[in-house]
Sequence to fold (655 residues):
Amino acid sequence: MRHVLSETPCLLEVERLRKDFELRSGLFKKRILRVHAVDDVTLDVRRGETLGLAGESGSGKTTLGRLIMRLLNPTSGSIRLEGRDILGLSAGGMRNLRREMQIVFQDPFASLNPRKTVRQILSRPFILHGTPPEHVEEKVAELLETVGLTPAKAYIERYPHEFSGGQRQRIGLARAIALRPKFVVADEPVSSLDLSIRAQILKLMKQLQADLGLTYLFITHDLAVLRSMAARVAIMYLGKIVEQSDVNEFYSGPLHPYSQALLSATPLPDPRASRARRSIRIKGEVPSAFSPPSGCRFWTRCPSKLHKCSEVEPLPIGIGKKHVVACHLVTKR
Amino acid sequence: MSENLIQIRSLKTIFPTTEGIVRAVDGVNLRVDRSQAVGLVGESGSGKTMTALSIVRLVPPPGRIVEGQILLRDRDLVRLGEREMRNIRGKEISMIFQDPMTFLNPVMKIADQIAEPILIHEGKTGKEARQRVVELLETVRIHSPKEIADAYPHQLSGGMRQRVLMAIAIACNPSLLIADEPTTALDTTLQVQILDLLKSLAADLNMSVLLITHDLGIVADVCDVVNVMYAGRIVESANVFSLFDDPQHPYTRGLLASALSIDQFKENLVTIEGTVPNLLELPGGCKFNPRCMYVMDRCKINEPKSVDVGPRHTVACWLHGG
Fold:
């Protein structure tokens, strides 16, 4: 299954991961509907890289991020960090794992406790993980300066509501990097931010990555952001990864019809290029995850579907060393 | 020469609050010609939505228009009474919003909601209106329009709801459609469908569009003319090609330089430093001066006026003589 060969060692390996959610409906809640939110997902994230995970709503990208963070328990499959299985960890093991893996959420307002000052929010990880109390203040100040909130003194006693969206996301990043994790999941970290602030946060993320050797799983619906942020991208549709590729190969030649449609639908901030481009349009909307299409999950919207697409599910195949795609149209040359 | 449809002059809309007066729209000049798609771009708090709500005179109280003119052909909307405005809304000017669910009545069938403006403005019978509703649903490319006409909003998907909202908006062939972030809540593949629809409706119905968005990609794709707003003011206005080829205001330049694209890898991300301004604590002089990399002494004292820097290209910046 592991098609993308690599020179850099893997930090995180996800194999055949699956998460089903159950919904009971009807009288007496007897009818059980099952959603395969994440369905047989295999991917690697290499040390020091950013893997971009993209897809539309309902694709399962956020669920996958949460499974990797162990905020949700998978139905089956395995997740390894530096070769260690992280699914069978004890409570103590989980606590240690939290030092190594952290998450940044989309809405920094919802993810910061409004009743706590920045000092309290950022002290917490240090206290929990045994930093001597006399050093905590110094650590928090250092952290604030690292994320560009300088001078730290001006910010440390303030509450989240006193900050702008961009500043709150800086605090979210500060909390994530407090314990020098190896791996950070960033779930739509700039989607709720204003245009002029987005680039600031993305630049800070790149800076932190370079300085601290971080590895990111960058979850977003915005392929334009990933072009400049990711080394590799994985595209999800209805719980499946349909394409995984090196970033240059992906943007110059996406192979899956869904990836092609997604790229073609991403607005170009250039009026000439935008009006000149050949557009691939797909019809309709993402089908309900409760009753996903048979065979390839994309066939109901695919502009170039074949007869077998509705019957046989395409398996991921490697095209070259840097590209994996699950589509019947793509065959090994 | 293109025909002028709406012309806004020195519009000021304010909101009195306990902490002071928020000048949400502060001296906006804006023009939309017949059959033209005009973009209004800005970040949160720049005043783009308040400009739009001022045009249809739906500024939520205690906000109010305190100055300026909004000329629709030869009538000044600022001076019209509520009864006269009701004849304008939905008939001459329609509006669609980001979140269709908020503007659709959850306990009213789709057909009745679309028929409402037709019955009010065109005095048609119920039967005629019903037929028009089905036509309109076809126009916004809804398959099986007859079934959808009898559905309720919650039975429709997000994309269908936005189409229904469009059907209501175009029901009386308005001359101007104001679209306030119409696709912001939608997925990428759906967004492009709605934008395609918007473009083709505008062309087919000979309708002008005022598109409010924060997305430069959408502006580049849809608009003929772009206005960039910052802190309640229009800082630059130009033809879409001139604006992207040759932006003049440092804020516009910063926005364009920091925009990311699927077409280009940017190793070093360009940023505009600082934060989006708080309208209660605006700086003196040019409102952008604390974030501007070309700031000069006079930028902090006097506010620059809009000057012409090319054919239909204006900019309010002291670098261009203000």
Remarks:
- The longest strand of chain A covers residues 10-25.
- The mean pLDDT of chain A is 91.
- DSSP finds ten helices and twelve strands in chain A.
- Chain A touches chain B at residues 56-57, 164, 166-167, 194-200, 202-203, 206, 221, 223-225, 227-228, 247-248, 251, 261-275, 279, 281-283, 285-286 (CB under 8 Å).
